[in-house]
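Protocol step 4 of 6: structure prediction from sequence.
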Amino acid sequence: MFIAPFVATPMPVVRRMLELAQLKPGEIFYDLGAGDGRTIIMAARDFGAQAVGIELREDLVKKALNSIQEFRLQDKVKILHSDLFDVDLSQADVVFLYLTTSANEKVKPKLEAELKPGTRVVSHDYEIVGWRPAKVDNFCENPKLGYPSHTIYLYRKE
């Protein structure tokens, strides 16, 4: 079982990550550690994806389920109360990560084994050591203030 602390990705960063991943309508999007569901909801509502969130904490799963129902996205979004290592990722077109570098290191073998070629992996602030990013984007949430700055890594499975 793997537990990472819940730190919500700011909504402008979520949008930038989905744009960078070039998420398209009908694609299958997975968020590993979906938290309150904000990324899967945006992926479905604003980008037309079929979205799957995987979250270990029951309180966050309940919060995400409430939001999914509130936005009436039950046909496009699902949240699994599960350990990400117990979920098959082979259908994913895009995988979203906001884990630590050490957590990415633990998830890397699963991604390498299960993702199909061409799958995009987008990671907020933490690289996947040993993988070469297709793009690294330094995104400033509030350019007038100059902070906070976020680093977004985009990878493509070969």
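Step 5 (inspection) to follow. The beta strands are 28-32, 50-55, 77-81, 94-97, 120-124, 135-140, 149-156.
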